[in-house]
Amino acid sequence: MTAAVLRAAGLGKKYGRRWALTDCNLEVPAGHVVGLVGPNGAGKSTLLNLSVGMLTPTAGSVEVLGAPAGKQLAKVGYVAQDTPTYSRLSVAEHLKIGAHLNPGWDHSVAERRIQSIGLDPKQRAGRLSGGQRAQLALTLGLAKRPDLLLLDEPVAALDPLARREFLQDLMEAVAEQELSVVLSSHLVSDVERACDFLIVLVDSRVQVSGEIDTLLATHYRLTGPRKDQKSMPKDQHVIAASHTDVQSTYLIRTEMPILDPAWSVSRLTLEDLVLAYMGRAAQPEQTGRPLLEVQR
């Protein structure tokens, strides 16, 4: 397996006059469960569809497992939005199709998962609950024995219990098969439960990416007497800022110690971090302003 299971360079996709994905540059290292987070319409599904070759880029390129997207389909598992299954086909017929289409199909994995989640092989998919259909779709993806599994918001429509069971089964499969996963979601709780690498996608652009532990260790909330951003040290990259008449609060990213005794310093939660980047301006580098600024 290559060092990067997914690599995008200047990747973009345009529909008419609208860019669904713009100037996407990212590198997903092997061996991680990646949370791809962003609001609806941010470009998450577009990125995943480009990655499996279902869409053709308007700009840039995307490589999967060291080859152009669509060239490594035997090694890539994909579960699209709404966990699509064929309502008229039985569970067993789904597995038969999976075996026919995938040369690396592992029948023992499929059978073991179907038994463990209690699915009747004779039951039609149209009569399964949403959670059961999601588990069936995950089974088809895992039995393919992929090196990379792409999941496009597979649990968005599930109730909390079904969502937890799905993510628990996913983590067990990751540990057993040692595969890499990209999990698209707009729920931070799902990312906290299952992922160790984060990509935040907003307004068709990647805002931040990296290992979650590293991101949390390098982001801080500073609270203290009102202070203009221009006076902040250059090594403190301002993500968001809010002010009252007498007080300033900054969310910053830095790898250096914070030495100013005027600041009260606290760590961010993953939700704090994601929400700060989701409030980011479309082109912050060109404005010279903080990515999210609130005046009170």
TrEMBL record:
InterPro entries per the UniProt record, alphabetical: AAA+_ATPase, ABC_transporter-like_ATP-bd, ABC_Transporter_VariousFunc, P-loop_NTPase
Domain ABC transporter positions: 6-228
Cited SUPFAM superfamilies: P-loop containing nucleoside triphosphate hydrolases (SSF52540)
A Pfam family: ABC_tran
Keywords: ATP-binding, Nucleotide-binding, Transport
GO MF annotations, alphabetized: ATP binding; ATP hydrolysis activity
Protein name, entry field: ABC-2 type transport system ATP-binding protein
